[in-house]
């Protein structure tokens, strides 16, 4: 009588998660690269105000971590898509896995890099401030908003991470759809831009789109925002899981 | 997030999506090969340390906003300087600073020239009762407050000299006074509120200047680089 | 008990049926050779058994469960082919550590020993290896995972003769120590024949035969002699293969139901009766009753 | 010993013959334990099932006997049995081939017998010296 190894889903998922952290460490290198580029781009300022009076130009350059956060969003989206590509799925199938354990481990990995992404994007703002402080010696730097308070850091980290989660799961779903059928390579972008174009023409659609965006963007209660983000993330991830459960691996 | 940045964001998104679709597999292989642990560690160590270093920086090295009273005073000075000068009593404006020159003019005519092609300064001329050949030039200027920061120290002053019968006004060359202003983390702002932690910042400039000349009655003003406004206006009106 | 059971298993890609109504059982703890020519459906079949691909119709059971997307089957199955997607950022030694974490029966001592024997440096990266070295590493993982169901799909691609021989020897020795169900697919039947217990021969997704290797060696006989004499003998028999050797001579492969008396008679009339090696037989069986490549030359 | 994988004889037969030769040579005596199928599999690098088939032939022929739970043992009369079998089977087959070849070459019967006698005498001479 053969003795089968009985294996628990949780155990495999945990193993796979650790395996992914080791195997995909290269992805964090890309995060560092993307954020370094973002910091360099941010040096030029994200806005400003100028007034000329005779021979004098009075200028206020505004700086923010917007570019860093936005590029981190893009990075998270890209990484999520990459996670669903064939070579990464096949990487799972090399060792013990099923689609559920694979997806759960991906989910855990996704949360991990959203946390790291969120933290680093917020801290990127601090780096930006240091760069300006040490290059000017502090002269001409407005003290307002300069010293990031722990509250501000924590809030920035939390909200950025929540948005990263939303974007990553969206990317993950897109990736899963594309892996399911290559038709989605065409469908998804056309859907995206189609909605944008329609919103530009039709006030009703624009209103709906804005409402959808405001559902998140105008939520000023942290608890409500967290609940909304987690709910949406869970639903989107659930859909991705259902679809992926039917796909074949190592074709 | 600034609206101007949205198209760029979309463009990058499109490019990224296309690249992913076309080069996805290759990209994955390429990424996998990169393993620069120390670089990664260095980057994240820098990130972690930066807020701590930030908190250790001396705040006094930064530019702090002026208090409300000084702001109001500077504003009042800037607003009043012109109207009051037109009445012939610019020295009566509160908070206005001055630079004064005195020249003795030989002759009956005066020309006012600029050292640079495009003169900007407002010049007012008052004819005095006496005929002693003394020309008084007074440069009036208010404090300069750029976006709530006092930048008066950085504003360069005007120079006035007299050679023969020509008054030469030297305005400073082109220069820039720049402030660097950090925005609040727009992600944090969503739950903290834009103004929750600090006062609003005003993007504005408070600064006025003018040159006030007092010349003897008999001196003839020649055609000059500057438009010379005669003051006080009441006198003219009365005549 | 059967480790693998297939009933009328079909895997279709559009109209093409890569696996076509395949039915067979693999008894547990046997080494079975899955033999077939390129495109016969071996890899598809193995991937269905490993749970990677979804069957189209019919039934497939591994350890009495449907293997597709099944964690128990995955935990007890290791699938080795020349397309193992090992992550590029891990060293060979780290990969072994990971494998050890996933497979309960993993034998690290033997795996490390094998790595050493095959001169694979545990500090190297998988993607730096040559094709043969990659295959060697793959089989080391496959072998010492010691899974109840061990599947090797053309595992020796790129390996030199010495390494292949060592692998087969290692496979047999580890099998003796730790019996398990092994499926070994290869087109080099010659090399693996001795270590196999059963052979499953498929062509165009269909089963041709499934029997113990010794039976396969006695399944057919080769007759060589004058064409007209052979024609006579071939009359009432099941012919597997005919080829014209030239000069009025022919080579005939028939099913082995020749009696001792007929054998005696045949030798008297100058017909050579020879055994047909399992490898040759498989080639003859899978190429149908056509005369093989010789026919192409004879006709044109 | 190396197995010949190309000749007509199946491997399990070759295993059986090798075991017989071992017994004939006296390497394994009566009532002594025979190699197990696993030992044979390892020695010859063959599947243990094939080795088992070789052993089972010898069991059928009474050369080996099974002891429950202990394995295979050599029957007391194994040597004689093997000798008898070889005389009846192997030698007859060889003689058949010999006669057939002689017929093809057109060698008359008495000449064939002379050749056999000559070789036999030669072997004797070698053995003496």
Please tell me about this protein's structure:
The complex is a heterotetramer of chains A (251), B (239), C (300) and D (129). Chain A is mainly alpha-helical and 251 residues long. Chain A has helices at 9-23, 25-42, 66-83, 86-94, 99-136, 150-180, 184-201, 203-217, 222-244, and strands at 47-53, 56-63. Chain A contains 9 helices and 2 strands. In chain A, β1 and β2 (56-63) form a beta hairpin. Chain B has 239 residues and is α/β, with parallel strands linked by helices. Chain B has 2 domains: 3-57, no CATH class; 68-238, no CATH class. Chain B has helices at 6-33, 37-56, 68-86, 186-192, 233-238; strands at residues 97-104, 109-114, 123-128, 134-141, 145-146, 149-150, 159-163, 166-170, 175-182, 205-206, 209-216, 220-221, 228-231. In chain B, a hairpin with a 2-residue loop joins β5 (145-146) and β6. The mean pLDDT of chain B is 81. In chain C, the strands form 3 sheets. A 6-stranded mixed β-sheet of chain C has the order 5-6-7-3-8-9, sandwiched between helices. Chain C has 300 residues and is of the alpha/beta class. The model of chain C has no long low-confidence stretch (mean pLDDT 88). Chain D folds into 2 domains: 11-77, Orthogonal Bundle (Arc Repressor Mutant, subunit A); 79-128. Helices cover 64% and strands 6% of the residues of chain D. Chain D has 5 helices and 2 strands. Chain D has helices at 11-24, 37-44, 48-60, 78-105, 109-128; strands at 64-67, 71-74. In chain D, α1 crosses α3 (48-60) and α2 crosses α3. Classes of the chains: A mainly alpha (251), B alpha/beta (239), C alpha/beta (300), D mainly alpha (129). β2 (56-63) of chain A pairs parallel with β9 of chain B.
